[in-house]
Records
---
Amino acid sequence: MIRHAIVAGGGIAGHSAALALLQAGIAVTVLEARPDDNDLGSFLRLNPNGLDALNAIDVLDPVVDASFPIRHVDRRALDGQVLVHRPLTDPLPGRNLGARFITWANLARVLRDESTRRGATVRHRAPVLGAEATRNSVHALLADDDPIEGDVLIGADGTRSTIRTVIDPAAPAPDYCGSRTIYGHTPRPPTHTPPAPAQLRSYGGPKAWLAHIDDPDTGHTYWFTNIKTSELLPDPGPTTEDWRIELLQRWNDDDIPAGIIKMATRIRASDDRALHHLPRWHTDRLVVIGDAAHAAPPSTEQGGSMAIEDAAVLGRCLRDLPLHLALARFEQERRERVETIIAIATGHHTTTTGPEWSYHHHIEWTQRIVP
């Protein structure tokens, strides 16, 4: 019987896992390396399948309260001509979940607050440096404290996962995709910028593209773009002003994206990485989820949603099956789906269907899993 789970990583995957485990009747300790006031990260789109997974772990309502809807995808020429106008709707009849925009920090905060409120023990500034498993338990190894004992350890520790290499020292690291995604926040966009409330709007130019969405309540503009480069970001990375100078070289002064970039108060970037295939997802008492198992580049538009799906499916498996069967069943349920999504986004798999196929995914929490 699984009584206590340890979760390494307190981001979206980690706290989603905590919520699923608590709902399954399993006590949880979440170990997070970062401080509790961390606001790193950018923003993301939660597609219908991600919202469905949030509903499965009973946290949809607070996430909806902290987000706003994305009703259309709109692509325009620089002169304003509408080239594409596509609604973002839920393909499953009667579910009516659509898509929503939320910042990474707000989503992580909602999930953390809910998992704490429901009984999870959450420790910050507690990086997991390794793990040791015995026949009857597993110990998470910490830098400045005694090991923490549990029945299972879940690695939700991201692209640079420690638990991934504990499971398999020869595990591949995510591949660099040859590009980086740049995110910006413009609280007061120029007055000549056509507003795009609840609408993901992109502009294409001869040298670059930029997509943005406006918060319908505050009017703040959130935007992103992508550039190809063979060079990885330095540490520390460029400042907001560095990025502003570089990006403005790709636009004419009177282009709408140039105005948005000029008024930005925060610009940051991340290298795009993908983990197409991880040979081993688990051992007898350790398992990885989210980016630790299948890092996805932003072009999938599914990284956060897949992590939440992982958490809900793992919770059901641990609720209904003995541990040695539960982790294998979790991998069986998840591997093909996530690897296909990543392969399509990175050009390793071709398809004639649009992204809507991935939106159909549904998790029925009350349905029991049988061996």
---
Amino acid sequence: MRTPSRLAAAAAGVLAVATLTTAEAPTTGDIYQGYPVLDLSSPLDLSSVPANTISRYYINAATGQGNIPYYLPVLIARGSNSSLDSGKKLSLSSSIHGDELNGIPVVHRVFSYLNSSGVVASGDFNGTVIGLPQQNPNGNFHNARQLWSPGNSGTYVNLNRILPGIDPFGESAAEEVPSITDAHVGSVWYGLWGNTSNVDVAVDLHTLSSGANGPIWAYADYRAEYVQRLAELAQPDIIKIDPGEPGSVETTFVDYGIPAITLEIGPAKRWNNDLIDRAEEFVYRLMADLSILPNSTAPEIDLSETYKGTNFSSVVVSQTGWVNMTVSVLDDVEEGQQLAVVYDWFGDEVESVTAPVRGGFCRHRWIPPWK
């Protein structure tokens, strides 16, 4: 992976390599694919995770039909013992929609760098980073946005609309049996993230929905403290300023007073290394801004190529046909400018699609939806 040039000097003198350890945090005693399963019968206490270490675990987010566990991989990079008080706690989560893949290697690369550079083992890592690269393996396996459950002859649920889920430690927990999906997000929110006690800043990594082409953009609620800075550190192509989606990772964190953004990293279902590189670099800028990395200074932000807006204006064709785009993603367009031409089965032009407003062209579909 690429080592950020800004961090190279800080990392050059560090020879120790962080131990990838099974750690001593409370576990169930189960081992899955060589790594222990965290015991989340109570919220995770980060002080139980070894200091100056990168630890790997699984969590059992829910149990499905046939007592089949839904395991999620978790990485935790912990600094010194004192850094739990002096440093920030950052959450990097990805792929809550199973067809959205570009965020997964971002988390992997960041932890690979933290390990290979020796920065965590050095004792100068001032904070904690919790990585959750795959929030929805069920969706990954089904090549689907949502989590599939066999209940009611098959049900798909968007996990990013039902947070924080059911509190497994609440007063009604013994009486209320949660659904698989409520248990799934509840285990992460209340167990791993400790109902925000284990998180000071959160970044939820996404891509566009399947069948859409677009750039990197951030959804950001500028009303919340530090969110504007957080979004601008990403230096995305687009910042969409809005109040968020109820029940999403981003908005739930913001509602609980934790600054968070959603970062969309290009199209779904395929890795785009250029966009992944940009998202990875953003995480290093963020860790520097939070003074998690040693010898950090406030990063300079370049927004010269970033388009900010508060509204998406969509346009749809009035009939089925073959579409040829006449503009590209990130082009500036004027109201009334042609965006695409629609042809019928014989190749005759049947419709010209035009821009309803002046703005920046942010995405288009390449797989037609059936609705």
